[in-house]
Amino acid sequence: RVRLTESGGGSLHTGGSLRLSCAASGDNVTTYSMGWFRQEAGKEVAGVAVLDNTGSTTYADFAEGRFTISRDNAKNTLFLQMNSLKTEDIAVYYCATGGLTSWGQGTQVTVSS
């Protein structure tokens, strides 16, 4: 079974940048579709970005133009580069494999004005 571990979250001011990482172990995920999701306080989990096994990417409207999903196959790691962060981006961010069969524990992102 794949184990996913997110890191890179933190607290920063609006306009700042963060890069989230999702390290996979237990299996080689380089051929998997992978995605980033987030959960704001009191809300349901929402999709942020997906990187499929062909290399194609899909972004939520709020992420388009500000966030970039990528992967390093040699490190079996998925990334989410987040720029121009807003207070609306405050959430716990999770990575997951395609089919949502494996999830990480999440990493908190806090943005203050």
Structural features, described:
By secondary structure, the chain is mostly beta strands. It has no helices and ten strands. The protein has strands at residues 3-7, 10-13, 18-25, 34-39, 46-51, 57-59, 67-72, 77-82, 91-97, 107-112. The chain has a six-stranded mixed sheet with strand order 2-10-9-4-5-6, with no helix packed on it. A four-stranded antiparallel sheet has the order 1-3-8-7, with no helix packed on it. The radius of gyration is 13 Å and the shape is globular. The mean pLDDT is 96.
Summarize the entry for a quick read:
The protein is an all-beta fold.
Query: What proportion of the residues is helical, as a percent range?
Result: under 10%
- Strand tally, please? 10
| Derived structural class | mainly beta
State the shape: globular
Stretches where pLDDT is under 50 for at least 5 consecutive residues are none
Described by strand count, sense and barrel closure, the largest sheet is:
6 strands, mixed
Strand order of the largest sheet: 2-10-9-4-5-6
Question: Nearest-angstrom radius of gyration?
Answer: 13 Å
Distance between the termini: 40 Å
* Average residue pLDDT: 96
The H-and-E topology, N to C, reads as: EEEEEEEEEE
Bin the strand percentage: over 45%
Count of DSSP helices?
0
